[in-house]
Amino acid sequence: MVQMEPKWLVLLAVILSLFAETQQGLTSGFYSSSCPKAEATVRSTVETHFKQDPTIAAGVLRLHFQDCFVQGCDASILITEASGETDALPNAGLRGFDVIDDAKTQLEALCPGVVSCADILALAARDAVGLSGGPSWSVPTGRRDETNVSSSPDASNFPAPNDSIPVLRQKFADKGLNTNDLVTLVGAHTIGQTNCSVFQYRLYNFTTRGNADPTINPAFLAQLQALCPEGGNGSTRVALDTNSQTKFDVNFFKNVRDGNGVLESDQRLFGDSETRKIVRNYAGNGRGILGLRFYIEFSKSHD
Prior knowledge:
Layout: H1 7-20, H2 38-52, H3 56-71, H4 97-110, H5 117-131, H6 165-173, H7 179-186, E1 193-195, H8 196-199, H9 218-227, E2 237-239, H10 251-257, H11 264-267, H12 273-284, H13 289-301
Antiparallel strand pairs: 1-2
């Protein structure tokens, strides 16, 4: 029997593809005539960088998400002039620009002026997930790059690591995404990392009485405190998915279920009745019938 992807992995791929399809005129195989090697070139470039540093997959995926979350998948995140998206506080520490630049350079040599950076970024995100053990999906292409520098987006519009679930729901609803989409997309943290400085407040004096965040598993708290000592500079990188940091899998949801979520917003998924059900569902899903059923139902919805 052919193994199917866990349901949430498939759903993540679907949401990312729908995210991409908000622009008009996109189609799979857009470059089949004008630049036949476009998708293969992007994949080989991502693979080269991935072999050197598997954590770059998370960087590329985050780059794509942050780009799409502002005003659509238009590569505006790549504009580096002052006051652009790159300078927005939530975009601090973004990685993967070199991967996109490398792919663009190679494609310009093959097909000058044909393949947009927006498409390269969307394709690279898909390939980064696949190389990490996650699913693949068809990426509709034909985007056009944003060339005008807009003002730095309001940081409050981005999901934040200390957001409550109601706040996150609203931010995702503003983008046309529901609670199930929210939990699914947060699952991309399965290959993510962050600095101690982002969550260190949870470890010490969280309640202003010297206590840590009570939602953290005590054994996991000790691990985090060892990695991020009180008074430290906060620069140490910590995996958001303990024991499975470079593999795109459901272990992230198991960690949240068990009180091992690194970010407060991640762990809060288990404190809300609606999101808790979704987390439990994903944490319990292996490969098999649920993934198969989702493939069938999703295919029907496009008949």
